[in-house]
Specification:
Largest sheet: 7 strands, parallel
Bound molecules: adenosine-5'-triphosphate
Shape: globular
Strand order of the largest sheet: 13-14-12-15-16-11-19
CATH architecture of the largest domain: 3-Layer(aba) Sandwich
Number of domains: 4
Number of helices: 24
CATH class of the largest domain: Alpha Beta
C-alpha cells in the first residue's frame, strides 16, 4: 500500500530533528552535513523507507546506496530491511564503491574497445607484484618504494585513453597478461574502465540512469577523485536525485586520496541544497563535552551537539590511564573489561579496543591478559569484511539452520534466499512452496549428518562446495553479481573453511565454532580507520602517545580528525591509555600534547595512575 507523502512518518517511532525530516522529504539533490552520531546513516535508511513507501521512487525504479566499506553497506541494508514493509527493500541496493565499479565493468566488459578490454578472468590485485613486473618489461626498475608509488599512482589515476606510451604499454600488459604477468587490475583501474564504458556508451549510461532514480552517498567526506568522477559521469546532469551525507571533521582518508574539496564540488556540480544536523544520538552528555572541544578546534564555527533526550546530563565517563609499562596497562584493561561484562552486563561486541595502527603488534599482550580472565579478544581486521560477505552469510545460516531447527533467523535467511534464487518471490502456489521447503529441509538433514562426520579441513571445504552447489552457483551469481567474475567466491570459501576449522578444533562443537567465527563472544580489536561508522558502549583507545601518532607534526589536522573519529565511537565509557614503556621503547606524549589539552579542557576527563 502506498503511503501519501503527508501521511508518511519515520519508521520505528524514531523522532527526527526538523532539518533531518526536511532533508528526507527533499526530492532534489541534497547534502547533509553533521557531526558524529547525528544519525546520518539512519537518515539514509529513513529516506529509503520514505521514497519506497510513498512511491516517490516510482516502482520499479530502485535506490542505489554507495558506501566505502562492506560492513557500512551491509549495515545500511540491514537498517532498511528492519524498518520497511511489504518487501520493498528488494528495490534498495546497497553497495561499496568498489563493487559498484566492478559491477559496471563485469557486466559491460564487451562494450570496451578490444585494446582496453581485460580478459574475463582478470585477477583483482592484492599486491603490487604484477605492476612491478609490467613496468620491468619497459626497463623501469621499481625496487625503490617511493618510485613504485609514484609510477603506480600515475598509472592508476589518470583517465583513459592513455596519452603516454609507457602507461599505455603497462596498462595493456595488465589487461591481457603474458607468460610472466597475470592479467591484474586494482580497484582504481577497475573504476577507470567503468568510467570509460559509461563515457563511451550512451545506452549503458541511460540504462543505469533509468534503473536508479535515487542515489545515496554515505561518508561523503572520504570520497576519492575517481569515486567522485564515476558518480559525476553516471549521474551528473541526469534526472536522478542524489543525497550525500558526511562530516568534514571525520575526514580521515586524505592519505588514501580523499578529495579534499568534495563538498564544494558536489554542491556546485549537483546544485544541491545543504542541511546541517545538530543532534548527537549516540554519546552520553559528558562525552559530548569532549566532542565539543575537538569539534571547535577542527572548524571555525563553534558548535555544540545536542544529546538525545534519553540521557540524563551526568551520564558518560572518560578517563586517561597512565601506566609504567604495557603489562600493567593490559591488566587494568582486562580488569575493567571484566567489570563491564560481569557487573554492568555490557555485551562483548559492545566493547571495542582501538589503536591508531598496527593492531597485531598491540593485540598480543592484551589478548593474553584477557585470556587469564577467560575473556576472548581478537584482531578484527581479517574477519570484518569476510563476515559481511553474502556467500559467507548464506553458508553460516545454512549451517546454523541444520544444527538447530529452531533458529528462526537462520531459517528465514536461507528460506528467503532460496525463494529469490528460484525466482519464486511472491508465489501463491502452495505446491511449489511445499516442494521447496521439503527439499531444503532434506538438504539441512544431509548437512547435519555430514557435519557430525567431519574430521579434517578438506571435508569441511567439500561440505561448503556442496552447500554452494545446492543453491546453484549460477543462481547465486545472478542474485549476488559481485561473485559473477573470477575466483573471488572460491577465495572467500577457502578463507571461511580455514577460520571455521581452527575454531572447530578448539571447541569440537560446530555451534561454538560458528559463534567464535562470528566473534559473538570476543572483544574486537581494530584500528580507528576500521571502526569508522561503528559504535560501542565502551571504547578503549590504547597507546595514546607520540609513537602511535608518529607523523602528527606533518598532518595535525588529519590526525586530530582520526582522534575525533575514535573518541566519538563511544556511547558511554571512554578510556585512553598511556604507557611509559611499550614494545621495549619509551613513550612520550609531548608531540600530541594538544590532544591531551583538549581532553583536559573538556573538564570531564578523570586521570588515573597505575
Ligand atoms: N532520530 C534518532 N533517534 C534516536 N536514535 C537515533 C536517531 N538517529 C540515529 N539514532 C541512533 O544514533 C546512533 C548514531 O546514528 P548513525 O550511525 O546514523 O549516526 P552517523 O551520523 O552516521 O554517525 P557517524 O558519522 O559517527 O558514523 C545509532 O545508534 C542510531 O540508531
Amino acid at each position: 500500500m502506498v503511503i501519501s507523502i503527508d501521511a508518511w512518518k519515520p519508521s520505528d517511532g524514531l523522532v527526527l530533528e526538523t532539518t533531518a525530516l526536511k532533508s528526507i522529504r527533499d526530492l532534489k539533490n541534497s547534502l547533509v552535513t553533521a557531526g558524529p552520531g547525528a544519525g546520518k546513516t539512519e537518515l539514509l535508511a529513513q529516506k529509503a523507507c520514505f521514497l519506497l513507501e510513498t512511491n516517490s521512487c516510482v516502482n520499479p525504479k530502485k535506490i542505489l546506496a554507495i558506501s566505502f566499506k562492506k560492513d557500512a553497506a551491509a549495515n545500511l541494508k540491514d537498517r532498511v530491511k528492519m524498518r520497511i514493509s511489504n518487501n520493498l527493500e528488494t528495490r534498495f541496493i546497497s553497495q561499496t564503491y568498489d563493487s559498484f565499479s566492478k559491477g559496471v565493468l563485469d557486466r559491460f566488459l564487451y562494450a570496451l574497445p578490444e585494446e582496453y578490454r581485460p580478459v574475463e578472468d582478470y585477477v583483482v590485485a592484492t599486491n603490487d607484484n604484477e605492476f612491478v613486473k609490467a613496468f620491468g618489461e619497459c626497463g623501469i626498475n621499481l625496487s625503490n618504494r617511493k618510485l613504485k608509488n609514484i609510477y603506480i599512482n600515475n598509472l592508476t589515476n589518470s583517465k583513459l585513453p592513455n596519452s603516454l606510451e609507457l602507461y599505455d604499454f603497462v596498462w595493456k600488459k595488465l589487461l591481457q597478461g603474458d607468460v610472466n604477468i597475470k592479467p591484474t587490475l586494482n580497484f582504481s583501474m577497475i573504476t577507470l574502465l567503468a568510467i570509460y564504458i559509461l563515457e563511451t556508451n550512451p545506452m549503458i549510461l541511460k540504462s543505469l540512469r533509468t534503473t536508479y532514480s535515487h542515489i545515496f552517498l554515505d561518508e561523503f567526506q572520504d570520497t576519492t577523485y575517481l569515486q567522485y568522477e564515476i558518480i559525476k559521469t553516471c549521474f551528473g546532469g541526469a534526472k536522478t536525485s542524489l543525497t550525500a551525507v558526511g562530516d568534514n571533521r571525520q575526514r580521515i582518508m586524505l592519505w588514501a586520496g580523499a578529495k579534499h574539496d568534495v563538498f564544494k564540488c558536489y554542491k556546485r556540480d549537483f546544485n544541491s541544497q545543504e542541511y546541517t544536523l545538530i543532534m548527537n544520538h549516540r554519546s552520553a552528555p559528558r562525552l559530548l563535552e569532549i566532542q565539543k572541544i575537538v569539534n571547535n578546534y577542527l572548524q571555525d564555527e563553534p558548535f555544540t551537539p545536542l544529546p538525545n533526550p534519553r540521557w540524563s546530563e551526568d551520564e558518560g565517563s572518560a578517563e586517561i590511564w597512565y601506566s609504567s609499562d604495557s603489562t600493567i596497562e593490559s591488566e587494568h584493561i582486562a580488569k575493567r573489561i571484566s567489570d563491564l561484562i560481569n557487573q554492568h552486563q555490557v555485551p562483548f561486541r559492545d566493547i571495542c579496543i582501538i589503536v591508531k595502527q598496527s593492531v597485531q603488534q598491540y593485540s598480543n599482550e592484551i589478548i593474553e591478559t584477557l585470556e587469564k580472565f577467560n575473556i576472548q579478544a581478537r584482531n578484527e581486521t581479517k574477519f570484518q569484511d569476510l563476515l559481511k560477505e553474502d556467500i559467507v552469510l548464506l553458508i553460516i545460516n545454512t549451517l546454523r539452520s541444520a544444527l538447530n531447527a529452531r533458529d528462526s533467523d537462520a531459517w528465514l535467511f536461507i528460506w528467503n534466499s532460496q525463494i529469490f534464487f528460484e525466482g519464486k518471490n511472491g508465489t501463491k502456489n502452495q505446491l511449489i512452496v511445499d516442494n521447496m521447503r521439503k527439499q531444503l529441509k532434506g538438504f539441512l538433514r544431509y548437512i547435519k549428518n555430514k557435519l557430525d562426520l567431519i574430521t579434517d579441513k578438506e571435508e569441511l571445504s567439500s561440505l561448503f562446495i556442496d552447500i554452494i552447489a545446492f543453491y546453484d552457483i549460477n543462481k547465486i551469481k545472478k542474485y549476488y553479481p559481485q561473485y559473477s567474475q573470477g575466483q573471488y567466491i572460491n577465495k572467500l570459501r577457502e578463507d571461511l573453511t580455514e577460520y571455521m576449522y581452527v575454531y572447530f578444533e578448539k571447541s569440537n562443537d560446530w555451534i561454538l565454532a560458528i559463534n567464535s567465527f562470528e566473534g559473538i563472544h570476543s572483544i574486537p580489536i581494530m584500528t580507528i580507520h576500521k571502526c569508522k561508522g561503528l559504535e560501542f558502549e565502551a571504547v578503549f583507545f590504547v597507546g595514546f602517545d607520540d609513537n602511535a601518532f608518529w607523523s602528527f607534526s606533518n598532518q595535525e589536522d588529519e590526525d586530530t580528525c582520526t582522534f575525533f573519529v575514535g573518541l566519538s565511537r563511544s556511547k558511554r565509557y571512554l578510556y585512553f591509555t598511556f604507557s611509559e614503556k611499550r614494545f621495549g621503547r619509551n613513550c612520550n606524549n609531548f608531540k600530541i600534547s594538544i590532544l591531551y589539552q583538549m581532553l583536559h579542557e573538556s573538564g570531564v576527563v578523570e586521570e588515573k595512575y597505575y
